[in-house]
Design goal:
Chain lengths: ~575, ~60
């Protein structure tokens, strides 16, 4: 029970207000670099060996610069917790990450205000935010073999995509050669040579340093769209394969739970019409399974990591392809809000872990199946009175609270059969029940139950909105919606926290530990160990989620971490896992 | 304003004479809360600080 690996990814919005008189405000990539410089003063970091800009920390977690269009000035800061076990542990690491990043933003060497906002949607309706990752069976029995056969059958499409990627790289190199000649020719007539060079080569090449603009702005969309076209055959067949086989059993039984989960863990949101929703991200979800942004899809279950592995990572390392044949894979949930309240965050992860355990061990053979899950999700999230009903396939109507009660009862039965489960599992169950009782009171009285204020985000946010008074216009409400999530002392949730009405789950010593040390019995244990021991030495150290690389070039050593993701029983609870090393 | 109680404060033992002058934890929480709510209410009406005017997180293409 609660034994699987779990990790959280959180995209933080950047709020940057340049100091008055600043002539050249910093771009988001420069802000990210400043944040990393400040983070380096607080902990050990090493460069990430990945296809995007990032670092790994001594606790085994990572910080990324997340952007599809960096040259256009877009970007977010993304934090990823190390792989943890149990809800309490992952919440401690999430809180440690929030604190470290918020402090680093505050101390970053920039002129002006630089703050992070841990939310999921800005006033322009850009959606980003939280992702949850759980280790789970991708399929079992005959379906697992179909999954593996499918991976083999995908090989022609994979090779086709690799050829496409290589073609694109060759095209870019050819372009650079031609652009060089064009520049040499045009510079004789053009007065503003720098502008010409920027238009032809992008800022990185012109300035000879990383500025976050690796290509000219005009070329960015071109490359993005060309990549999508060239990889579309693989994307289409992989998407079908994932829909049929990847976590199909889990998804079937988990979907009604996730559709109704916002009642306990939604962050609340004021939409462009001023209406209040239980959750920030849910109204933007438009499909059950997808890659997340590839075709403007925003799925409940994200399979983008399978696509990235097959399309790019396998090209450079065959192990990445081989690892996809394992029964246990990363199960990513894209539906879920960034929580400020620990109570809500703990319930979001804890209840999901319990339900996943119950499904995988066969305690949930029958679940209420919704007729239209996405429609149901939007209907339930749009109703903070908690009275909305959605149709099931059986023709019956069901409320979000009834769905949650069904899963709570199932998990209680599951734990009754597993009396050896950890105290944390029973604690989650108790808090879940308390929250649902408080929500029943909320439904009956038509106003937030006082005991949920400071514990559930959407209830707390609604309470703040109601305290604005009758005359509050949309902009005041939206500001509350956004600034509630600001991580500085000026953030509204932080202000509420100082009053003493906010309940905590993890204590200060757990957060302090999570700032310094990686979790035990996890790939992060080994990753963090190598980062602490070898960074700062003569040999460069780099990391990614699968391996640590010591040294560079042909003499580098790679320590693979994949064998440590098999659970405490496989890794040995009290021993430091043995590492495998080889020359690359 | 809805009356809320602190979730984690312990009861403070005070003498009967002290009880007349020393506010209880609950009263302190209520006073702090009222102050915080007023500060938030006032700040929310100031729209000059770019929380709404500019997108805080242009991801690009989203």
């Amino acid at each position: 029970v609660l034994d699987r690996l779990v990790g959280l990814e959180t995209e933080y919005a950047i709020r940057y207000h340049p100091a008055s008189g600043t002539t050249a405000p910093l771009g988001r990539f420069q802000l990210y670099k400043s944040l990393i410089a400040a983070l380096r003063q607080r902990t050990i970091v090493v460069p990430a060996q990945h296809f995007k800009e990032g670092v790994f920390t001594a606790t085994g977690g990572a910080v990324w610069f997340e952007s599809e269009r960096p040259s256009s000035g877009a970007g977010l800061i993304e934090g990823a917790t190390p792989e943890c076990r149990g809800a309490r542990q992952v919440i401690a690491y999430q809180r440690a990450q929030d604190r470290m990043l918020a402090e680093s933003a505050g101390a970053a060497p920039v002129e002006g205000e630089f703050r992070l906002i841990k939310n999921d949607r800005d006033a322009q309706n850009n959606v980003y935010g939280a992702q949850e990752n759980y280790e789970a069976f991708v399929a079992q029995g005959i379906r697992l073999w179909f999954w593996r056969l499918g991976l083999v059958a995908l090989l022609p499409a994979i090779v086709l995509s690799w050829m496409g990627v290589c073609l694109l790289i060759a095209g870019l190199l050819t372009y650079l050669a031609v652009a060089g000649l064009v520049y040499l020719f045009l510079r004789l007539w053009v007065r503003d040579r720098r502008r010409l060079a920027l238009a032809l080569f992008g800022r990185d090449l012109v300035e000879g340093r990383e500025t976050g603009s690796p290509t000219p702005v005009w070329m960015e969309s071109l490359i993005l769209n060309a990549t999508r076209v060239l990889t579309s055959p693989l994307a289409l067949v992989l998407l079908l394969h994932c829909r049929w086989f990847a976590f199909a059993h889990l998804r079937r039984h988990l979907t009604p739970f996730l559709v109704s989960r916002a009642v306990t863990s939604g962050a609340g949101m004021v939409d462009s019409e001023g209406r209040f929703h239980l959750a920030d991200k849910a109204p933007a979800i438009n499909c059950l399974v997808g890659f997340g942004g590839y075709l403007h899809d925003r799925p409940m279950y994200t399979m983008g990591h399978f696509f990235k592995t097959l399309c790019v990572e396998s090209l450079f390392c065959w192990r990445n392809y081989r690892d996809l044949f394992s029964a246990r894979q990363r199960f990513q949930i894209g539906l879920g809000d960034s929580n400020m309240a620990e109570g809500a965050e703990y319930l979001r992860i804890g209840t999901t872990l319990l339900v996943l355990d119950a499904i995988e061990t066969g305690y949930l053979p029958q679940t209420p199946q919704l007729r239209h899950p996405i429609r149901a999700l939007r209907t339930l999230c749009a109703d903070s009175s908690l009275r909305a009903e959605v149709p099931m396939r059986s023709g019956q109507q069901v409320t979000a609270l009834e769905l949650q009660r069904f899963y709570l009862d199932a998990c209680r039965r599951y734990l009754e059969q597993h009396r050896d489960a950890t105290a944390e599992a029973f604690d989650i169950l108790q808090r879940w029940e308390d929250a649902l009782e408080g929500l029943v009171e909320t439904k009956q009285h038509g106003q937030p139950s006082p005991r949920l204020i400071g514990t559930l985000d959407w209830v707390t946010k609604r309470y703040l909105l109601e305290n604005l008074g009758e005359g509050a216009d949309w902009s005041a409400k939206k500001k509350v919606d956004i600034r509630y999530h600001e991580l500085s002392d000026h953030g509204y949730f932080q202000q509420l926290k100082r009053t003493g009405i906010v309940s905590s789950i993890v204590d200060e010593s757990e957060i302090e530990r999570a700032i310094r040390l990686p979790p035990s019995n996890s790939p992060a244990t080994v990753r963090g160990h190598y980062i602490r021991e070898f960074s700062g030495g003569d040999e460069p150290v780099s990391a990614n989620w699968r391996a640590i690389t010591l040294g560079s070039g042909f003499r580098s050593k790679v320590i693979w971490l994949s064998r440590f993701s098999q659970g405490p029983s496989a890794a040995g609870k009290n021993s430091f896992p043995e590492t495998t090393t080889h020359e690359s | 304003m809805m009356k809320l109680t602190s979730p984690s404060t312990a009861t403070v033992a005070t003498s009967s004479s002290a009880q007349k002058t020393v506010p209880s934890n609950s009263q302190i929480v209520q006073a702090r809360l009222a102050s915080a709510l007023e500060a938030i209410r006032l700040d929310s009406r100031d729209s000059s600080d770019e929380y709404l005017e500019d997108s805080v997180a242009r991801f690009g293409g989203e």
